[in-house]
Design a protein that fits this description.
- The chain is an alpha+beta fold.
- 16% of the residues lie in helices and 37% in strands.
- The protein has a six-stranded mixed β-sheet, with helices on one face. A five-stranded antiparallel β-sheet has the order 3-2-5-8-10, with no helix packed on it.
- It is elongated, with a radius of gyration of 28 Å.
- The relative contact order is 0.13.
Length: 327
């Protein structure tokens, strides 16, 4: 019995020593108030896409982060990284964070100020009134980071904030189809999309008018009809900033022979028709944020006119269009 008791006591002591060693390696127990460093990291991901998978490494070239003191509003830290992780040199406190992706060496958007005096100064913009270029992709993220004092908690673990990104650039292709086989020329039509998204603010809201024109125009006979007949098409490729569910950007198409406007419809309302049919469970803004590529097709007759009573095709799905008289 005595040997059994001693054996049990030895095992209890050994377990206590092991437990204490684990606690000592994962926590900070010291009389000094400076012995427990507060180490902070930010991690970034881009899974706000239609596949819901993280595409950061393939799409986001760089990130710029600004951390503002929530109490004073002053800039506390800024940094850049070409990876999905960044160390933040901040102490205990509450911080409002804004992140921009793809803005280093970006010729499409003006870069954010390197040292904005407040969070409202952290914005990007398209620096022209009319944009007819392929925009370099940009991304946005925001978060509130509450950093605790490790000297008070006794923890040695780094504090990490995970920040999801939203892509703020979009591709919109407008296709005009000639069903009777009449040949089309690049100069037969001109198009423009008028938006209020030249400025993208710190909270990813948009403002200021900008007119987009195609960055590329081509004609082809690649369009396949239901009878597998190749038809002439006129394709205009647009590159746009962030699209908002409550916006009414204006898509206009003109016949160049006499300047007649043959199409005049709200862009977002028509793009969301596809969401209403196939992704109804998804919030409208989330749908526009997750997709970055859209296709709209119109059928034009031999007089280069579009009948507003006919269907349009959103991502190859036929539907009556949303229209308005004025806005």
């Amino acid at each position: 019995m005595r040997l059994g008791h001693r054996h049990i006591m030895r095992r209890v002591v050994a377990f206590a020593i092991l437990l204490l060693s684990i606690i000592m390696t994962s926590s900070c127990i010291t009389d000094s108030i400076d012995e427990c460093p507060t180490i902070c990291h930010a991690t970034f991901r881009f899974d706000m896409n239609i596949h819901a998978s993280d595409a950061f490494s393939g799409q986001v070239s760089d990130v710029t982060l600004f951390a503002f003191d929530h109490t004073t509003g002053a800039l506390s830290f800024s940094g850049t990284s070409t990876s999905n992780r960044m160390t933040l040199d901040v102490g205990p406190g509450v911080y409002d964070i804004t992140v921009w992706g793809g803005t280093l060496d970006n010729r499409s958007f003006s870069s954010p100020s390197p040292a904005p005096s407040s969070i409202t100064g952290s914005f990007i913009r398209i620096p022209v009134d009319t944009s007819a270029t392929l925009l370099t992709p940009v991304f946005h993220g925001a978060a509130r980071f509450i950093v605790t004092d490790n000297n008070l908690t006794g923890s040695m673990a780094p504090q990490v904030i995970d920040i999801p990104l939203v892509k703020d650039t979009n591709r919109v292709n407008i296709t005009l189809v000639s069903p009777d086989g009449s040949p089309l020329a690049e100069t037969d039509f001109s198009m423009q999309i008028t938006c209020n998204n030249a400025i993208i603010a710190h909270d990813n809201s948009v403002s200021d008018r900008v007119v987009y024109r195609p960055w590329a125009v081509r004609v082809s006979d690649e369009y396949l009809s239901r009878t597998v007949t190749r038809l002439p098409v006129h394709i205009s490729e647009f590159s746009l900033g962030r699209l908002m569910a409550d916006a009414h950007s204006r898509l206009e198409i003109f016949r160049t022979s006499d300047g007649m406007r043959i199409v005049d419809i709200p862009l977002e309302d028509n793009l969301l028709l596809y969401r209403n049919k196939f992704h109804a469970a998804m919030d409208a803004q989330e749908y526009l944020d997750r997709l970055d590529s859209f296709d709209i097709s119109f059928i034009v007759n031999s007089d280069r006119e579009w009948n507003p009573l006919t269907n349009i095709f959103i991502n190859n799905w036929a539907t009556p269009p949303v229209q308005y008289i004025d806005w």
